[in-house]
Amino acid sequence: MNQKSELTESNYKRIAMINWALSVPLLLIFAWPYFFLCELLSINKMLSFPGSILFGVPFMLTILHGHVTMAMGAAHRHHYYRWLSDYPLTYGLLFHFVIISTRFRLILFSFSLFLLSIGYFIR
After folding, report:
1. What is the pLDDT of residues 71-120, one digit of tens each?
2. Is residue 3 classed exposed, middle or buried when 0-12, 13-18 and 19+ CB atoms within 10 A define those classes?
3. Orientation of helix 45-72 relative to helix 9-40, angle to 10°
């Protein structure tokens, strides 16, 4: 019986490359509704661009975290995140343990809605 483990460095590299490849398309998919709403409400671009990014990032991080969970399993994903933190200048370039926190993603989402309301009232 061949027992291939998911806990290999080649698997970690594969997951990291897939996550990097998915990050920009996912960010664009999730950011455009916010930007479109800002256009409809005539909100200044100085607030709509950062707000769009802050709106899209939590959804993107949730999908990427789900991808890691599906690839590694909920019981082993901490091994992958620890591996990322061991390579801060390459694979784990933009990784910090706070980004897998739901509280952090909710704060980003809330701040994007705060920017939307500020932009609506100062337009």
Report:
1. 999 999 999 999 999 998 888 888 889 989 999 999 999 999 999 999 99
2. exposed
3. 150
Phi and psi dihedrals of 45, rounded to 5?
Answer: -65, -25
Is residue 8 a contact partner of residue 45, using CB atoms and an 8 Å limit?
Answer: no
Task: Give per-residue burial for 58-88: e unless 16+ CB within 10 Å, then b.
Answer: bbbbeebbeebeebbeeeebeebbebbeeee
Per-domain residue ranges of the chain: 9-122
Report the length, in residues, of the chain. Answer: 123
Tokens (6 digits) for 9? 């460095």
Q: Are 7 and 76 contacting, i.e. CB atoms less than 8 angstroms apart?
A: yes
Cα-Cα-Cα-Cα torsion 63, 68, 71, 73, nearest 10 degrees, comes to: -110
| Residue 42, CA atoms < 13 Å, CB-side half-sphere | 3
Distance, CA of 102 to CA of 108 (rounded, Å): 10
pTM of the predicted structure, to 2 decimals: 0.90
